[in-house]
Amino acid sequence: MESPRSRQINDKSGREGQAAILLAIMVSSFLMFFMFAVNTGLLINAKISVQTAADAAAYAGAAVQARQMNAISYLNYDMRRQFKKFMFRYAYQSSLGNPRFPGTGSPDAEYDFPKLDFSGGAAGVLLPLKVPVVCVPISAAVGQSSDSCLSVNYRNTAYDVNAATNMINSLNSTMQAYLNGASAIAAVANELCAGRSGVNTFAAISWLFRGDLEETSVDQMLQDTTQSTLSNQDRAKLKTQLSPLTRGLGLYPRNVLNLMRIETLKDFINEKAVSVDWDGMKALENKSGADAHERTILAYKSALGNLNSSVFDAEKTQLEELQPSKMLELEEIKASFKVYVQAMIPITANPTVNDPTSCRSFIYKINANDAPVGVKLASTGNKNVHYAVRLRTYVKPRGLLFMQGSGELELDAMAAAKPFGSRIGPKGLQVSDFIVTKSNLPSVNGSPICTTDCNSPNLSLGNTTNFYTLGFLKDMHTLAGGNTPSTTGILDAQSHALAPNPGEVGLYNIIPPPPAANGSQDPMDFEFIPFSDQNSTRSTTQVYRFYAPVFPKGGASIAQKVDQFLQSIFPNVSVSNDPVGLNLSDLRNKLKTSLVNYIGGTALSTGGNYSENGETETFAALELPIQNVTQPKPYMVTTAKEVRTSWSPDHHKVSSYDVKFTPRFGYSVKLVSFRDLMRQGLTTDDPDVEKMSH
Asked: How many CA atoms lie within 13 Å of 630's alpha carbon, on the beta-carbon side?
C-alpha cells in the first residue's frame, strides 16, 4: 500500500514533467516565431536589396542614354555652327576685296553686295547683286580691298592703243615700243584674270568641300583650280594668305562626319533589348562591338554592385531589358542653295569695238545640293527614351537563417528611369531656316545671275539681324581691323560670328565656357577636362571632347559607311554654267577619298596634327561655342548662365547662404513610374510583367 508521502512525491514529479514539456513547447514556439521574424526581416531586406539593385541598373542604363543624347545634341548644335562658319566666310570674307565694303546706310538694312559693270562701255554701272559673290583679290594682301573684286569688267588698254594707232598710217619706233609694252601689260593682266577665277573657285570649294587638313591638299586644290594660270611663286603666296582663312574641314565633310557620329549614337540608344546573365554580360564585354552594349553592361554591373555576394548568386543573376524597338527617331535637315562665284575669262583674241575689255568677268553659281545642316525629331516618330529592366536573382541556401538544404529562393524586381531636361534641337527646325529666296537678281553682261530657284544661304541671328545685315557686317569688319583687316582679326571676327544667339537658348543644348581659370565660381561650372596634346600649338582649353564614335567597332567598312552617307546627302551634285573646268562629277569621289583617308588614316586614329581639334575616331572634339567673345553684341550670348537648358528656371538665386536653383545644361536622369511607361507603349514578351506590382 502506497504511503501518502510517496503519493505526494509522485504527484510532484508528474507536475514537473508536464512543466518541462510545456516549457519545451514554449521555447520551440518562441524559436519558430523568432526564426520566422528574422527570416521575414532578412527576406524583406533581400527584396529591398533586389529592388535597389534594379533601381541602380535602370539609373545606370538611363545615365548612358543621357550621355549619348547630350552628345547628339552637342553635335547637332555644331552642325549649326559649321553653317554659321560657312556663312561668315561667304557673306564677309567674300566681300573683303570690294573697296565699297561694307558701305553705308541703315544698320538694319541688308548689304546689297554691289558690283561695277562696264558692259562694254567706258562708264560703269553699279549693280546691287543682293547676294554674296566669292572674290579673293590676288593682287593685294588678304583683307585688302581691290578694284578686281568690285568691277566685273576691265578696260583693255591694248585695245585703246590699237584703236588709236589704226588711225596712223605708219608707226614710228616710239609708238611701236609703246604698243608692245601695252600688249605685254595686257598679257600679264590676262594671266591674273584667269588666275582670279581659280582662286575664287578654290575658296568656295574649300569652304564647302575641303575634306582633310593636310597642307599638301591646299597645294593640290590650288593647282587644280588655278591650273597653269598662276606661277608657282604666286601660288605659294596665295597659299600663305588663304590657308588660315580656309582652315578646317569644309561644311559638307564636317557635317557628314557629325551626322555619322549622331547616327551611331542613335543606334546605340535604339539597340535591341536583350536578356543577360553573368556569362551573357561577359560575352557582350568581349565582343568587337561592345560599345553598342554599354548601357547593358553598365546596368548589369551596377545591379551586381548593389547585391551582397554572400547572399545572392551573382552568376545566376539575370537582367532583362524592357523597351520598344525604337525610342529615338531623327530627321536630317538638308538645305539646297546657290553659292555665287566671280569668274574671269581673259580676252585673248584681237579686241574689237564691240568688246573693248581685257578681262570678261561674270558670276557663276555652284549648286550646293542637300547640304547637311542639322537634325530634329522625326515627325513620324517619338522621343520616348527610357531604360526599364526586370532583375531576377537567387538567394543562396545559406543566404537566410535556418534555410539550409531548402534550395535557392528566386527574387525579382522591376525599375525604370529616363533622361530628361534638355533638347536635341528645335522641333520646328526646317530647311527654310537656312535659306532665303532672292528674286529679281540683276543681269551681268546681259545674263541674269539667277532666274529660278534662287535660294541663297542665310541664317537669322535674332530679331532682324542675319548674315546679310549691314550692321552685322560692319561689326565684323570692325572686329577684323576695319579697313586694314588682318588674318588674326578675321579669325577673331569669326569667333564672334559663331557665338550663340539668344534665339538658340532653350532650343539647343549649348556647351557653356569652362570654369574660370582664376578659380572664381560661375553658377554653371561643370567638369571640364583639358585633353593632353603633343601639338603644343593647339589650345586644349577651348575644346570639349566627349565620347561619340564615328561608327561602332566591327561595323561596316569605312569606305562603305562614307559612301552610304554621301549617297544619301547629295547623289546629284552639279555645277551649272561651269566656266572654270570645275568637274563636280568626280568631286564626290574626291570627297569620299579624303573622308575615308581622314577617318581611317593617322588623323582620327591618333588625333594627330591633321585631326581637327584633336578629334579621334572615338572622341568628338568641338570648339566651345562661347570663346574669345570680347566685344558682345545684342545678337550674341556670352555668359554661361545665358545658355542654361530649357528646363532650368528663368529666375535662379545662388549665394553662399541661400541656394535655391542653379542653372543647368544637358540631360539629367530620374526614376519613373513603370506603369507610366507601360501606358506609353513599353513592350515585352514576358506575360508576367503586367501581373507584377511596380
From this structure: 7
| Dist CA 578 CA 336 (whole Å) | 18
Helical pair 587-600 and 558-569, crossing angle rounded to 10 deg:
140
Cα torsion through 582, 588, 589, 591, rounded to 10? 100
What are the residues whose beta carbons fall under 8 Å from the beta carbon of 576, sequence distance 6 or more?
Answer: 364, 365, 367
Q: Are 94 and 533 in contact (CB under 8 A)?
A: no
Mean pLDDT over 636-663 rounds to 62
Q: For residue 77, what pLDDT is reported?
A: 97
**Low-confidence winner among 41-50, 170-179, 300-309, 563-572 (lowest mean pLDDT):** 170-179
Separation of alpha carbons 620 and 685, rounded Å: 38
The single residue listed with the C-alpha cell 600688249 is 183
Q: What pLDDT sits at residue 313?
A: 86
Most confident of 393-397, 443-447, 585-589: 393-397
* Residue environment code for 358-382, b if the CB has 16+ CB neighbours within 10 A, otherwise e: bbbbbbbbbbbbbbbbbbbbeeeee
- Give the pLDDT of residue 63: 96
> Rounded to the nearest 10 degrees, what angle do helices 173-209 and 4-91 cross at?
170
C-alpha cell of 480? 577684323
Q: Could you tell me the pTM of the whole model?
A: 0.84
289-298, pLDDT tens digit by residue?
A: 888 999 999 9
- How far apart are alpha carbons 223 and 542 in whole angstroms? 34
What span, in angstroms and rounded, lies between the C-alpha atoms of 688 and 694?
12
Measured N-to-C along each axis, helices 251-269 and 558-569 cross at an angle, to the nearest 10 degrees, of 110
Sign of CA dihedral 102, 108, 113, 119: negative
122: cell is 567706258
pLDDT digits (tens, 9 = 90+) for 486-503: 888 888 999 999 999 988
Predicted local confidence at residue 259, as pLDDT = 93
Cell 500500500 appears where?
A: 1
> Residue 67 corresponds to which cell in the numbers above?
550621355
Could you read off the pLDDT of 470-479 as tens digits, one per residue?
999 999 999 9
Produce one character per residue of 489-528: b if its CB has 16 or more CB atoms within 10 Å, e if not: bbebbbbbbbbbbeebebbbbbbbbbbeeeeeebbbeeee
Query: CA-CA distances (angstroms) from residue 229 to 195, 259, 344, 523?
Result: 5, 38, 12, 57
- CA 199-204-206 angle, 5° bins: 90
For residues 342 and 90, what is the distance between their CA atoms, to the nearest angstrom?
A: 12
- Grid coordinates representing 357 are 575689255
Residue type for position 214 = E
pLDDT tier for residue 170 given thresholds of 50, 70 and 90: very low
Residues 242-256 as b or e (16 or more Cβ within 10 Å = b) = beebbebbbbbbbbb
- Indicate the residue type of 479: L
3-state secondary structure 467-483: CCEHHHHHHHHHHHCCC
Q: Which of 29, 299, 419, 353 is nearest to 164 (CA)?
A: 353
Q: How far apart are CA 582 and CA 343, in angstroms?
A: 12
3-state secondary structure of 263: helix
pLDDT in the model for residue 515: 67
Q: Which of these, 206, 678, 668, lies nearest to 419 by C-alpha position?
A: 668
What is the DSSP secondary structure assignment for residue 396, as one 8-state letter? Answer: -
